[in-house]
Amino acid sequence: MLLETADKLELSDRPRRMRATAASRALVRETRLSPRQLVAPVFVVPGAGRREPIPSMSGHERLSPDLALELARRLAGLRVGGLLLFGVPDVKDDMGHGAADPDGPVPATLRLVRDAGVPIVLAADVCLCEYTSHGHCGVLDGRRIDNDRSLPLLAAAAVAYAAAGADVVAPSAMMDGQVAALRSGLDEAGHPDTAIMAYASKHASFLYGPFREAAGSTPAFGDRRSYQMDPANGREAMREMELDVQEGADLLMVKPGISSLDLLARARDRFDLPLAAYQVSGEYAMIDAASQRGWIDRRGAALETLTAIRRAGADVVMTYFAEEAARWLSEEGV
Q: Residue 81: which residues within 8 A CB-CB, separation 6 or more?
């Protein structure tokens, strides 16, 4: 006979006991999110006093180095762990030479923040897409991306960033051998202590649209599927990570973040290096747009997704919510 009331049930396991109050939930929380684990992507442009809103990512702007320094100080005050700098030059060419310009917006920002003694990790993205007139991440041979001719240019950019004060350089072009090329170039130039955060598993995602607007890096023709990974391939992602470990990577990155949680979990089981994940521009924009329409709670959705990325295995999370999340976590006493 079925029992008529729950009172007659004898339950020894009641998981709800430790969910009863905010204090009890916090006490047994398995995955904790801290501002120190967050890295804020920042787009920098030449000049001074220059601030350019990014329409597809409300609340974010392209900043000149002096304004980026102000942001760095604000983020450090909130205990945000680091900055990831992307340069947006005024002049481009077909080879992307501006990526290695020692007076470009990224080196200029690195020097300002470093000389100011701001206590924050400084990372610089290493790619050619923002600097090429065609918007692709490598040098062209006709309409084909020439992998091997691109490597010295990527290494030269990494050396320029290290010389300007970068703690970490992050090759994102998805060229075969890019980590080895950067490690060799950095060591030969006298920067053996500069770390490499490899965009090891970077899928050719439809979630990068707002970034391409912000960086001015939309390809003039074709797409990036001949060098970025097929989102359907998980085993290939593990192979890419293994190759980057062998080439000398210090951190491994998975991108996009929310749609790669399974890869993060697999990587956490397989590799001992620190793992990073990038909650990309489209992931930010979806939450941002839905919250502006009142469809979801901005704070709750942002922190839930960041926690999911951490729970899957990421030690570091690149996110456009970094400043907001740090404020929210501070309010919660984290």
A: 35, 36, 37, 38, 39, 120, 121, 316
CA distance 334 to 323: 14
Domains, the chain, ranges and CATH? 31-331 (3.20.20.70)
What pLDDT does 9 receive? 65
| Residue 5, phi then psi, degrees to nearest 5 | -135, 150
Instruction: Specify whether the CB–CB gap between 251 and 197 falls below 8 A.
Output: yes
Q: Cα-flanking dihedrals φ and ψ of residue 256, to 5°?
A: -70, 165
- Tracing tokens 């029992």 back to the chain, one arrives at 3
The beta strands (E) that lie in the chain are given as 38-44, 51-53, 61-63, 82-87, 121-126, 139-141, 144-146, 168-171, 195-202, 251-255, 275-279, 316-319
Choice among 60, 255, 266, 310 that is catalytic = 255
> What residue type is 270 in one-letter code?
R
Verify whether residue 92 is a known catalytic residue. no
Residue 88: what pLDDT?
Answer: 96
Say if residues 114 and 154 touch (Cβ distance below 8 Å).
no
Q: Do residues 123 and 146 touch, judged by C-beta distance below 8 A?
A: no
Please say whether the beta carbons of 228 and 178 come within 8 A: no
Question: CA 79, CA 163: separation in Å to the nearest integer?
Answer: 25
Low pLDDT (below 50) residues in the chain: 1
Given 97, 134, 183, 202, which residue is catalytic?
202
Is 237 in contact with 263 (CB distance < 8 Å)?
Answer: yes
CA distance 101 to 304: 39
Identify the three-state secondary structure at position 131: coil
Euclidean distance between CA atoms 229 and 200, whole angstroms = 10
Tokens 């085993």 locate to: 235
Long-range CB contact pairs, 266-271, < 8 A, 24+: 266/234, 266/237, 266/238, 267/201, 267/237, 267/238, 267/241, 267/313, 268/312, 268/313, 269/313, 270/238, 270/241, 271/241, 271/245
Structure tokens at 116: 């100011």
